[in-house]
Amino acid sequence: MNKNRLGKSGMVVSDICMGTMTFGNQSDEKTAFRIMDMAYDAGVDFYDTAEMYPVPPDAKYAGATEEIVGRWMKTKDRDSLIIASKVAGPSHSWIQAPLRGSKTGLDRHHIVRAVEGSLQRLDTDYIDLYQTHWPDADFPLEETMIALDELVQSGKVRILGCSNESAWGLMKSLWASDAHGVARHHTIQNNFSLNNRRFEDELAQVCRQEGVSLLPYSPLGGGVLSGKYNDGSFPEGSRFALYQHAPKRQQAMLRRFLNEKSIESTRRYQAIADELGMSVVTMAIAWSKQHDFVASTIIGATTVEQMPALLAAADVVLAPETLKKIDAVSRDLLYPMG
Known about the structure:
Blueprint: E1 3-5, E2 12-14, E3 16-19, H1 29-41, E4 46-48, H2 64-73, E5 82-87, H3 108-122, E6 127-132, H4 141-154, E7 157-163, H5 167-180, E8 185-189, H6 203-210, E9 213-214, H7 239-243, H8 248-257, H9 260-276, H10 280-289, E10 297-299, H11 307-311, H12 320-332
Parallel strand pairs: 3-4, 3-10, 4-5, 5-6, 6-7, 7-8, 8-9
Antiparallel strand pairs: 1-2
């Protein structure tokens, strides 16, 4: 497993990160332990969770994922693990978090409450990477960064990151940190995949110039790039089978991830992978890892059987000819996810 530095920090992690957002609903604890054990045995030392997980958000099991990860951590040497978690953003925006009376936010009060809850559920005295789960563009970023800096200074958190952030939001946060002499974001966790290359438009250059690392999530385009939705079916237990009858936000996500263009691009990527004699899943993860602004690509699994194809990407470097074929599909089917 190759290793990369997170931003300008002293933290170095495996270039594959194990995501955990389905642990506690789609995957039970026994399955989650087996998945994380497989990742660990393959050399993955980086694990990402959040106070709101599992998803889709539901008050009946919010926080369950961190509890599962915390119990699993007891089976390993804590110093061998890099654990990332997140504080929920404002519940008055695009998502309502079933935490703290659905009044979450990025002020000092909520940040302190959130990290204390995560530390308790994870049963650890520090979190390696602590991230804002989504932004609050109407709240002063200076106040958020100063509150987050207090966590770093207290030793509860080692380094900071953001998620689902814009180029403006990332630059504004970096300015706030510089202006006030407080800890900065070293990472940004955004959606990035063969079916969603919008990060390359602006944010990639911000990362290069400012020394921030991308941690791509959903590198399989919500599972669409696996090909399991190609025939129009919704496999039982899959994310978008669940989202069909979920609230409007999840249904909007379904339409964004799963549409005629994303299915067609997936078919074309599958053909390229077939020529290489590898799973399109492996190719998609390898492609993600092969960007200079990416430090670690976050994989996710609901079953043990999904893991081998994901982990196989650790040893794959795509040739320039393959990258050209991939780029040709992207140019022909521009922005499948809008």
